[in-house]
User: What shape does this take?
Amino acid sequence: MNGSPWQIEYGCPQCGAPVTLEETDRLLACPFCRARLYLAAEDHFRYLIPPSPAHTVGELLYLPYWRLRGTLFSVSASEVTHRFVDATTLAVNVPEMPFSLGLRPQVFKLRFVLPDTRGRFIAPDMPVERAISGLGAAPTGVFYQNFIGETVSLLHAPLLLRGETLYDAVLGRPVCRWSNDDMGRLQYGPLTAGEQVRFVATLCPRCGWDMEGEKDSLVLICRNCNTAWTCADKEFRQIPFTAMTPPVRAGEIALYIPFWRMRPRIEGLALASYADLIRMANLPKAMTPAFANEPLYFWSPAFKINPSLYSRWAKQMTALRPIGDENDRLPQTALYPVTLPLAEALEGIIVTLARMGADKQKLYPKLAGLRVTLEESRLEYHPFVREHNELVHASLRITLDRASLTYGVRM
Ligand SMILES: [Zn+2]
Ligand SMILES: [Zn+2]
Assistant: This one.
């Protein structure tokens, strides 16, 4: 099931030159006209498989599939396990249609859905949550499953309706019989502007400076006015950040690595303060009355990393609670890009909780019923020093293998 990331081909919105992107790319730097644009989508990115020019007779329709790539965590009675998922599953309830596209999307260069895209798009009638729960029927004894997505998008596969038969518009082969009544079961039409990809200028909304980021960065920074921005829908929004100050004798800082710090509200469990967490995880801490007034924080890597390391770092940071001197100035040292969105970090909280809980028998049956919402969050850049092949957290002294940090294609 481990496919490679998809490639998307399209014309630069400024000069029209052909550009090829990987699906995780967000920042486009056109090699021809040097335009710098950021790709944004209001909910999910939507791609299409281009129909073959050899097959054009009939009405062009597009069938939606959910694209799910990421890690599925499962909590059973004794352990937390994970597996990598890379799947496309049909997003409408039509048993006649192929349920999965298999490897096909890797073979073709995909396109974005743009205002001039021809054809009618069948609207998904299966919410993404249902597609996720269909990824693997939870084996017996599993208390909780959660998908932490690297990519959740919609892919549209082209069909041609000719007479009362639907044909695959890539291979030209018949797919199934299809009548007007069948058509009536579905909703379809052109995609609205809100459903199409947007190209947003990468100028700082506050001061107009060119913002900085790697090609797959989910957060761009402005070094001129010292601000950080995400573009979750159609425009950039400022997000709070801080850079942790390294201890005096830490040595030379090689890199700042981003983490999300979240203050969640957890319904369904008596877990609201740091004191509650110490008790629940049986942390080796001398309890003081002040802990009952200290907020509950969870940390999560804000970058993609393999699932074992993801879990380990989320757990260690949450237990060790790296609170200290902080600075609202962006450091001059290199910043590792943010590639894991806050929404996915929030999804990870229950998995972290499962890994930390001391009394698994009592905790695990409650996990599926918990409701976690975010009360407050911020991005934190933590300083790391380099020691041989490892990066070491400057104050916690925990190590991270440098090889695990090269832009992993997998989370
Ligand atoms: Zn261009
Ligand atoms: Zn600025």
